[in-house]
Amino acid sequence: MSEIKRIKVLIVDDSAFMRTAIERMLQEDSSIEIIGSAANGKEAVSKVVRLKPDVVTMDVEMPIMDGLHALKEIMRLCPTPVLMVSSLTHEGAKVTLDALELGAVDYVPKPGSTLSVNVLRLKQDLIAKVHAVAHCKPQAVKLEFVSNRRPGRRGPSRSDTVVSSAVFIGASTGGPPAIQKVLSLVNPDISAPIIIAQHMPKAFTAAFATRMNAICSIRVKEAVDGEELQNSVVYICPGDHQTRVERNIEGKFRFSIVSNQDEQDRFAPCINTLFFSAAKEFAHKAVGVILTGMGEDGVRGLKNIKLMGGLTIAQDRMSSVVYGMPRAALEQDAAARILNLEEIAKEINLALQ
Q1: Taking Cα atoms as reference points, which of 263, 271, 266 lies closest to residue 302?
Q2: What is the sign, positive or negative, of the torsion defined by CA atoms of 325, 329, 330, 336?
Q3: What HEC string does 211-254 produce?
Q4: Domains 7-133 and 152-351 share a fold
Q5: Are 67 and 92 in contact (CB under 8 A)?
Q6: Distance CA 222, CA 155 (A)
Q7: What is the dihedral angle through the alpha carbons of 135, 75, 66, 132, rounded to the nearest 10 degrees?
């Protein structure tokens, strides 16, 4: 009987304590093998080229060469799946989003970076992400955004405020670059709002919305509880909260956003929660999209949208960083279309002309 091939991991952090903490977490999975560690980016690049790990965990702030510069070199010399080990702060969010654009496939919270990080959940997520990204093909995001094409903002007109259709997008691992690509190609005057649930903590979703608004032609903002939906606006669901859409007594659509402390769902935002509300309130006027990610969050909600007559789309295998959620959507007959990122944007534009 042949031995199961173990996932080889290189741990990069200038803190010996942090390297040990991550190693102990990963060693609890017998299918993961720690093949080495590095205390700075320069050492990390050398060991990636020499040891050829399947996955690298990468700290950001290190002497000699920091994590972002090391990531650039790794993507240039020996493209390898990299998980950033990030602090759950606004500054940590900014650096992590930079890393995702440079080719990192995902991130995990730094152990001890905040009291809110559950150590057991962190260990489970770290192991799950190592398995999910071990065989993916990372690449830097190369997009050409023209921010000055955004239409001049005017006071809301009837066409802005009368919402009859909406686009709902869910994503997890590999999602931010995929979302960037779709938003770069979507018509900025689209006659519908776009609501996005990306698995991220609160500090990250706020930073992500700010970044997308700065580089995309379409307006992007973080959703706010009670806010009315407007056409031609992209809303990012806030992290650590659950977001739904609902219709008020005047027939207008607005957000209902509650802390996940009240609902205790594994994911916050949960894609299924958003999609179920989309199916209920928009029915056949909803467009549901599942992008790259591990697991199955969003699939049941996407199927509800399909059953109500809405258009449902899943990202194809070739363009997905992790083909977990899109594959589950295909296998469970929740997606009517299987498309790459460029085709998804075109399909959204066509559906809402």
Answers
A1: 271
A2: negative
A3: HHHHHCCCEEEECCCCCECCCCEEEECCCCEEEEEEECCCCCEE
A4: yes
A5: no
A6: 20
A7: -10
pLDDT of residue 158: 45
Helices (H) and strands (E) in the chain, counts: 13, 14
Give dist(CA 123, CA 197) in Å, integer.
Answer: 23
| Tokens 């990122």 -> residue | 341
Catalytic residue numbers read 172, 199, 297
Q: Which helix (H) or strand (E) holds 345?
A: helix 341-351
Q: Note whether 84 and 96 are within 8 A (CB).
A: yes
Written as six digits, the tokens of 120 are 């057991």
pLDDT in tens, the chain (353 residues): 456 789 999 999 999 998 998 999 999 999 999 999 999 999 999 999 999 999 999 998 889 999 999 999 999 999 999 999 887 667 778 888 999 989 899 988 887 655 445 677 788 889 999 998 998 877 666 555 544 455 554 444 445 568 999 999 999 998 998 999 999 999 999 999 999 999 998 889 999 999 999 989 999 999 999 999 999 999 999 999 999 999 988 889 999 999 988 777 788 899 999 999 999 999 999 999 999 998 899 999 999 999 999 999 999 999 998 899 999 999 999 999 999 999 999 999 999 97
- Scan for tokens 């467009």, then name that residue: 287
d(CA 241, CA 263): 9
* Domains of the chain, residue spans: 7-133, 152-351
**What's the token pair of residue 24?**
């102990």
Q: What is the CATH number of domain 152-351?
A: 3.40.50.180
Q: What stretches of 39-131 adopt beta strand conformation (E)?
A: 55-58, 82-86, 106-109
Spatial separation of the C-alpha atoms in residues 103 and 68, rounded to whole Å:
10
Question: The whole model's pTM is what?
Answer: 0.89
Superfamily of domain 7-133: Response regulator (3.40.50.2300)
